[in-house]
Amino acid sequence: MGLLDNTITDRAPRTSHAHVVAAIGREIVRGDVAPGTILPGDKELSARFGVSRTVLREAMKTLAAKGLIQPKARVGTRVLDPVRWNLLDAEVLRWRVEAGLDDDFVFDLATMRLAFEPAAAALAARRATPEDIARLREIVGRLGDARHDRASIATVDLEFHLAVADISRNPFMRAIGSLIEAAMAITLKLSSPANDPALIAEVAVNHARIVDAMEAGDEDATREAMRAVIELGAERTRKALDRWIAGPALTG
Fold first, then answer.
1. Does the pLDDT of residue 5 top 60, yes or no?
2. Cα(218)–Cα(117) distance, rounded to whole angstroms?
3. What CATH number is given to the structural domain containing 204?
């Protein structure tokens, strides 16, 4: 079962094009096809997926745009090294999470969020309207619902962070939504607070601090409150990942 099965980010392909992209993309990101490998030709892949060559070629263009492959005349389509993958692409990032988690990936994802989200929060403190503050207060109210399950609390948490990016009025900040969504998916898998009403309440309080500082127009305090939320979540995730990895050894 994939890490994102039944989560807020799980999406089934709806077209032949999307099916081919997802199937080949997942195989590459999982490591089933090693970097440097030349993929089978159009005829073989068309037969495998039961699609026309036109559909297949469009799918290959999509995968190339994601940095996963590089078509080359008289050579074929080569699988690229992971350093070339566009991890800001929502699908590539989702496939990477599905492929498996490790401390480095969790750390790198948190580092990226820390580079952007506190800055977005500070901008939001400068630009938020009373209506924006009311919107965030309403989300925080729902975030603190003790009846949450893993999926529902992750969905509301994601809504809050994307709302802050919206309120920053900076389109580049909103464009990192896939990073935030990946973090929510990891939380959902490993370290959701939904199992403990006290942790749910703590999450709501910590997010309310962001809104309090934003409403006061204190950019520094808003930045630090957001930083604290991200760092706390990343630390919980790392600890949960360590327990998850050690689990088989401890029980075997």
1. no
2. 16
3. 1.20.120.530
